[in-house]
Amino acid sequence: xxxxxxxxxxxxxxxxxxxxxxxVVFVIEHNPQGAxxxxxxxxxxxxxxxxxxxxxxxxxxCPWRAFVGGPVEKSAVFLLHSFxxxxxxxxxIVPGVWxxxxxxxxxxxxxxxxxxxxxxxxxxxxxxAPFRVFCGYAGWGEGQLDSELETGSWLVQPASAELILAxxxxxxxxxxxxxxxxxxxxxxxxxxxxxxx
Length: 197
Known about the structure:
Elements: E1 7-11, E2 24-31, E3 34-39, E4 43-47, H1 48-54, E5 65-68, E6 72-81, E7 98-100, H2 103-123, E8 131-140, H3 144-150, E9 154-158, H4 161-164, H5 172-178, H6 183-189
Parallel strand pairs: 5-8
Antiparallel strand pairs: 1-2, 1-9, 2-3, 3-8, 4-5, 6-7, 6-8
């Protein structure tokens, strides 16, 4: 099956696994050995600043939320960011988005954001998040994602930096599903529990 690396996987309306219900997953790797991605629309209750302190960083004020990247290795931290100069020559996964895990990268991102926020607050504006922090990831073994794609559990859509780093992700699944057109537009507007309608 063709690789969907660099794409969004949109959970089909009938996918009821609680780990992936109404999620959008950004696929970072997909090859014959398996696949790896990050759920981009499931913010956690954990502030990025608190996570940074928990891994030994200096106390900072960074109220953005970390995201639940998936059900695998929930203590692993992954970073998606938009800074080419911090990518160490790595290729972007999609134009304008790089992946990292290094503590040094996390520190550099925090430093850039706190500096930008300080400048913005003096002018009365705010800075959108130029990076995202994820705890855990979504993983598939050999042939597993291919099988799920064949059964229609996921819809595939091109990924973009604008959506990966979007300030709001609450309605990302609905918007992505509506983008598929047809009956999916109707499913996108249905409540999570139709009995409450």
